[in-house]
Design the sequence.
């Protein structure tokens, strides 16, 4: 059980959440504890699997979402937590139980925010997107999210506002040829050799850098895998280059796809995965208020986050959390206690408007 | 047991040898039968593992080698043999029991050839060269081979003289880079992109065609495999292109290596395998006699064969066998009965000198 004292202290609450093991697929216990804590408040609580939605019903003119996932990547000799010299170490400290703890702390201790708030605690963010609790909620009960005008995802940003997110596409570019014995190679057609212009175009490619709402989005078009070959004495008849395109949110998925097709014009191209980016939405009044509360300039989120799921629903959003994003999924994952305290204060100032 | 009648008929002998299963590593029975047949002759027979050497001791001014391997690639629903419409089907018919049968038939039925003859029947040609019976014999008892001035390997050539063989080298050309998250690709260095010039040089490469003793050797420099990539969201830090160089026998291994190093100048290159080619040696008097016996022009052997092992010992050699080399290792492997008869007649004419 999460006691009143623990819920009142975002650092203690972070520690308590980290010490409930919740590797993706195993969120039952942490979800029970979170539901229990929220049920003791005035919030309207609903549970869907291991995803919990808690809403203020204060008839404010505007509603905002605060969201955090409950799961972690697999443990790696980094459980339970350990605190030393102002740092808390352990699986999920940065990604993202410190952020989730801030949201839960505010849900329990801030009964009268200036905006209505929808708190969302969800499961399975670290695995297949088909299992993602926020995705499932957005698919089945979108009305619980779409009545908000703004969302904050408490993913690690090291205490800075990170606007929107990049889109990402995975693309297979293929060449084909004709097998032959390598001792009589002129009877075949070498598919690996034919991939030369694909790599050449990637090497020559100049990435676009786009500034939106003061956030600099750096794109990237990269081969992440290449495979080809049958046997040591056979001219290969196929070569596949797997490419990852990370694109700025001023392109939608169709525009991104058209761009990739243009770059690899003349080649056999298959799009195997696509997720849209999200515009930073920093011109939203609630975003401006949160920016003012941090007192620091925003930057772009370089990576894909669930902010894009809000964008698809028409809800602009940003990322703001105490952890360092570069520590996510690492064995030496940790979070600065001071960043947790500061993050909770910023969010409270914002919700109180003072 | 191989009866006298079977040994006297190269077609029946081919069938008998095909019907003794002898996938590489399982040559005990076929070697026993061959040894038994040879021991009933005047030949001097020695056995080393499943390799059998049988020599005439006629004090002729010149000695020649006739060699054939006893093993086959794995069966593939093509055992035992089946004869229909002048074709014998089955594993090992073309590669190379028809050729081996011709050598064994001559060993048993030709007591007074004009040259002394060393017959070699050996195991494990279709596997790792370390297990190759001819290689082991050449390493341990080279004197049994080096007193010959000329060798005929009865590998499938479809009844033509195929001179010498190409050399072959396997080379790894590597690029390295620096890993990074693909959402922040500019922090890394993409090793796959850096492989562009390797493929480009391969694509631009113009193969040399060299004519030696009337045989046209067509070289080939080919990527046979390419690998690179860590995960779908990671900038890859290594890419490896495996290259197979098939070179004409006017280059020795050192010259071939120097050429490959020149082509890939500036790249990290590792030679993992190298086998020399063999010059056709068609100016040897015994070769001229055999050419005359076939009455057909020679061509180059495009591929690597054990002829190169004789070349290394200073014994020029050529390939001559009834099977079609393009059927080797195929499920529908077969041999024309007429080619077996014709091959045996050519070889006999040559050995008799009439």
Sequence:
């Amino acid at each position: 059980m999460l006691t009143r004292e623990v819920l009142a202290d975002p650092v203690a609450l972070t520690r308590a959440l980290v010490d409930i093991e919740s590797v993706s697929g195993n969120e039952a216990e942490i979800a029970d504890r979170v539901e229990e804590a929220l049920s003791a408040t005035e919030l309207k609580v609903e549970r869907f699997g291991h995803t919990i939605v808690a809403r203020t019903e204060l008839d404010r003119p505007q509603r905002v979402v605060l969201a955090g996932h409950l799961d972690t990547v697999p443990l790696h000799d980094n459980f339970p937590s350990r605190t030393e010299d102002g740092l808390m170490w352990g699986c999920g400290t940065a990604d993202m139980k410190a952020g989730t703890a801030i949201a839960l702390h505010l849900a329990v201790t801030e009964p009268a925010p200036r905006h209505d708030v929808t708190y969302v605690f969800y499961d399975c963010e670290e695995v297949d997107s088909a299992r993602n609790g926020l995705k499932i909620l957005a698919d089945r009960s979108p009305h619980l999210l779409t009545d908000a005008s703004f969302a904050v995802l408490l993913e690690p940003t090291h205490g800075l506002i990170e606007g929107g997110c990049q889109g990402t596409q995975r693309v297979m570019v293929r060449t084909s040829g004709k097998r032959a014995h390598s001792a009589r190679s002129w009877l075949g057609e070498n598919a690996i050799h034919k991939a030369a212009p694909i790599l050449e175009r990637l090497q020559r490619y100049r990435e676009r850098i786009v500034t939106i709402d003061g956030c600099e989005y750096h794109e990237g078009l990269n081969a992440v895998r290449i495979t080809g070959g049958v046997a040591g004495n056979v001219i290969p008849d196929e070569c596949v280059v797997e490419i990852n395109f990370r694109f700025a949110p001023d392109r939608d998925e169709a525009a991104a796809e058209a761009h990739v097709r243009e770059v690899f014009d003349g080649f056999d191209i298959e799009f195997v995965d696509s997720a849209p980016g999200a515009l930073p939405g920093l011109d939203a009044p609630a975003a401006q208020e949160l920016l003012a509360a941090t007192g620091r300039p925003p930057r772009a989120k370089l990576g894909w986050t669930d902010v894009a799921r809000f964008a698809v629903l028409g809800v602009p959003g940003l990322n703001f959390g105490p952890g360092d994003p570069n520590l996510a999924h690492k064995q030496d994952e940790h979070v600065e206690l001071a960043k947790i305290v500061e993050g909770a204060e910023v969010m409270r100032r914002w919700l109180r408007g003072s």
User: Anything to note?
Assistant: Residues 134 and 239 of chain B are 37 Å apart (CA to CA). The two ends of chain B are 32 Å apart (CA to CA). The longest strand of chain B covers residues 167-176. Chain B touches chain A through 45 residues (CB under 8 Å).
